Amino acid sequence: MRCPFCGHDETQVVETRESDEGDVIRRRRRCLDCEKRFTTYERTEIALPAVVKKDGSRVDFDPAKLRASMMLALRKRPVSVEQVDAALDRIQEKLLASAVREVPSARLGELLMRELKRIDKVAYVRFASVYREFEDVDAFRQLIRDI
Q: Which of 13, 53, 107, 124 has the most CB atoms around it within 10 Å of its CB?
Protein backbone atom coordinates (compact mmCIF):
# COMPACT_ATOMS: atom_id res chain seq x y z
CA MET A 1 0.00 0.00 0.00
CA ARG A 2 1.45 3.36 -1.03
CA CYS A 3 1.67 6.06 1.67
CA PRO A 4 -0.71 8.97 0.88
CA PHE A 5 1.69 11.43 2.52
CA CYS A 6 5.11 10.63 1.04
CA GLY A 7 4.33 8.05 -1.66
CA HIS A 8 6.59 5.38 -0.17
CA ASP A 9 5.59 1.85 -1.25
CA GLU A 10 6.16 0.04 2.03
CA THR A 11 3.70 0.29 4.92
CA GLN A 12 3.01 -1.83 7.95
CA VAL A 13 -0.43 -2.87 9.22
CA VAL A 14 -0.64 -1.75 12.85
CA GLU A 15 -4.24 -2.73 13.61
CA THR A 16 -7.05 -4.60 11.82
CA ARG A 17 -10.75 -4.44 12.72
CA GLU A 18 -13.87 -5.87 11.13
CA SER A 19 -17.06 -3.80 11.00
CA ASP A 20 -20.06 -4.88 13.09
CA GLU A 21 -21.80 -6.17 9.96
CA GLY A 22 -18.67 -8.01 8.86
CA ASP A 23 -18.65 -6.52 5.37
CA VAL A 24 -15.77 -4.04 5.81
CA ILE A 25 -12.26 -4.45 7.19
CA ARG A 26 -10.56 -1.35 8.59
CA ARG A 27 -6.77 -1.32 8.73
CA ARG A 28 -4.55 1.23 10.45
CA ARG A 29 -1.23 1.46 8.64
CA ARG A 30 2.12 3.11 9.32
CA CYS A 31 4.49 4.27 6.63
CA LEU A 32 7.94 2.75 7.06
CA ASP A 33 9.56 5.87 5.62
CA CYS A 34 7.81 8.95 7.06
CA GLU A 35 6.22 7.13 10.07
CA LYS A 36 2.80 8.74 9.47
CA ARG A 37 -0.32 6.67 10.06
CA PHE A 38 -3.39 6.33 7.87
CA THR A 39 -6.49 4.15 7.56
CA THR A 40 -7.58 1.93 4.68
CA TYR A 41 -10.84 0.05 4.18
CA GLU A 42 -11.44 -3.22 2.35
CA ARG A 43 -14.86 -4.01 0.89
CA THR A 44 -16.12 -6.80 -1.30
CA GLU A 45 -16.46 -5.64 -4.88
CA ILE A 46 -19.74 -6.70 -6.39
CA ALA A 47 -19.81 -7.04 -10.17
CA LEU A 48 -23.15 -5.69 -11.34
CA PRO A 49 -24.04 -6.10 -15.00
CA ALA A 50 -23.42 -3.42 -17.61
CA VAL A 51 -26.50 -1.58 -18.86
CA VAL A 52 -27.29 -1.78 -22.57
CA LYS A 53 -29.07 1.41 -23.61
CA LYS A 54 -31.67 1.75 -26.36
CA ASP A 55 -29.04 2.94 -28.85
CA GLY A 56 -26.91 -0.16 -28.17
CA SER A 57 -24.24 1.61 -26.14
CA ARG A 58 -23.08 0.07 -22.89
CA VAL A 59 -22.51 1.85 -19.59
CA ASP A 60 -21.61 0.66 -16.12
CA PHE A 61 -24.52 0.13 -13.76
CA ASP A 62 -24.81 3.24 -11.61
CA PRO A 63 -26.96 2.93 -8.49
CA ALA A 64 -26.90 6.73 -8.13
CA LYS A 65 -28.75 7.13 -11.46
CA LEU A 66 -31.34 4.60 -10.37
CA ARG A 67 -31.77 6.42 -7.05
CA ALA A 68 -32.09 9.78 -8.81
CA SER A 69 -34.84 8.44 -11.10
CA MET A 70 -36.65 6.96 -8.15
CA MET A 71 -36.36 10.12 -6.05
CA LEU A 72 -37.68 12.23 -8.91
CA ALA A 73 -40.80 10.06 -9.14
CA LEU A 74 -41.14 10.09 -5.33
CA ARG A 75 -40.78 13.86 -5.01
CA LYS A 76 -43.13 15.19 -2.29
CA ARG A 77 -44.45 11.69 -1.58
CA PRO A 78 -44.61 10.19 1.94
CA VAL A 79 -41.96 7.52 1.37
CA SER A 80 -39.05 7.05 3.76
CA VAL A 81 -35.41 6.83 2.78
CA GLU A 82 -35.39 3.32 4.26
CA GLN A 83 -38.13 2.24 1.82
CA VAL A 84 -36.17 3.67 -1.10
CA ASP A 85 -32.97 1.95 0.05
CA ALA A 86 -34.81 -1.36 0.45
CA ALA A 87 -36.30 -1.06 -3.05
CA LEU A 88 -32.90 -0.29 -4.57
CA ASP A 89 -31.38 -3.22 -2.69
CA ARG A 90 -34.08 -5.54 -4.06
CA ILE A 91 -33.33 -4.37 -7.61
CA GLN A 92 -29.59 -4.93 -7.16
CA GLU A 93 -30.22 -8.36 -5.61
CA LYS A 94 -32.33 -9.34 -8.63
CA LEU A 95 -29.56 -8.19 -10.97
CA LEU A 96 -26.93 -10.14 -9.04
CA ALA A 97 -29.14 -13.24 -8.84
CA SER A 98 -29.70 -13.17 -12.59
CA ALA A 99 -25.93 -13.61 -13.08
CA VAL A 100 -26.04 -11.84 -16.43
CA ARG A 101 -23.17 -9.67 -17.64
CA GLU A 102 -25.44 -7.18 -19.41
CA VAL A 103 -28.97 -5.99 -18.73
CA PRO A 104 -31.12 -3.96 -21.15
CA SER A 105 -32.09 -0.54 -19.81
CA ALA A 106 -35.74 -1.51 -20.50
CA ARG A 107 -35.42 -4.37 -17.98
CA LEU A 108 -33.96 -1.98 -15.43
CA GLY A 109 -36.88 0.40 -16.02
CA GLU A 110 -39.36 -2.43 -15.52
CA LEU A 111 -37.70 -3.46 -12.26
CA LEU A 112 -37.84 0.14 -11.05
CA MET A 113 -41.52 0.48 -12.01
CA ARG A 114 -42.35 -2.74 -10.14
CA GLU A 115 -40.71 -1.38 -6.99
CA LEU A 116 -42.43 2.00 -7.33
CA LYS A 117 -45.79 0.29 -7.77
CA ARG A 118 -45.11 -1.62 -4.59
CA ILE A 119 -44.24 1.40 -2.43
CA ASP A 120 -46.22 4.31 -3.92
CA LYS A 121 -48.85 4.20 -6.68
CA VAL A 122 -48.60 7.92 -7.49
CA ALA A 123 -44.83 7.68 -8.00
CA TYR A 124 -45.40 4.62 -10.16
CA VAL A 125 -47.79 6.56 -12.42
CA ARG A 126 -45.37 9.50 -12.59
CA PHE A 127 -42.47 7.27 -13.61
CA ALA A 128 -44.51 5.15 -16.01
CA SER A 129 -45.95 8.19 -17.76
CA VAL A 130 -42.45 9.37 -18.66
CA TYR A 131 -40.80 5.96 -19.10
CA ARG A 132 -43.45 4.46 -21.35
CA GLU A 133 -43.75 7.63 -23.47
CA PHE A 134 -47.54 7.48 -23.84
CA GLU A 135 -48.77 8.75 -27.19
CA ASP A 136 -52.41 9.23 -26.21
CA VAL A 137 -54.66 9.61 -23.19
CA ASP A 138 -56.26 6.17 -23.64
CA ALA A 139 -52.96 4.37 -22.97
CA PHE A 140 -52.50 6.48 -19.85
CA ARG A 141 -56.05 5.69 -18.69
CA GLN A 142 -55.36 2.00 -19.15
CA LEU A 143 -52.28 2.23 -16.92
CA ILE A 144 -54.34 3.88 -14.18
CA ARG A 145 -57.11 1.27 -14.54
CA ASP A 146 -54.53 -1.50 -14.16
CA ILE A 147 -53.52 -0.16 -10.77
A: 124
For the segment 91-138, what is each residue's pLDDT rounded down to a tens digit? 999 998 888 999 999 999 999 999 999 999 889 888 887 776 666 667
Provide the residue range defining the domain that includes 55.
50-146
**Sheet containing 58-59, strands listed edge to edge, beginning at the edge strand earlier in sequence:** 58-59, 50-52, 102-104
- Residues 16 and 68 reside in one and the same domain: no
State how beta strands 37-43 and 102-104 pair.
Answer: unpaired
Parallel/antiparallel/unpaired status of strands 37-43 and 11-18: unpaired
6 within some domain: no
Kindly tell me the sign of the dihedral angle through the C-alpha atoms of 87, 89, 92, 97: negative
pTM score: 0.62
Given phi > 0 = left and psi -120 to 50 = alpha, else beta, which region is 76?
left
User: 117 and 98, same structural domain?
Assistant: yes
Task: Examine the domain organization and report whether 100 and 69 are in the same domain.
Answer: yes
Q: Characterize the bridge pairing of strands 37-43 and 24-31.
A: antiparallel
Contacts of 32 (CB under 8 A, 6+ apart): 8, 10, 11, 12
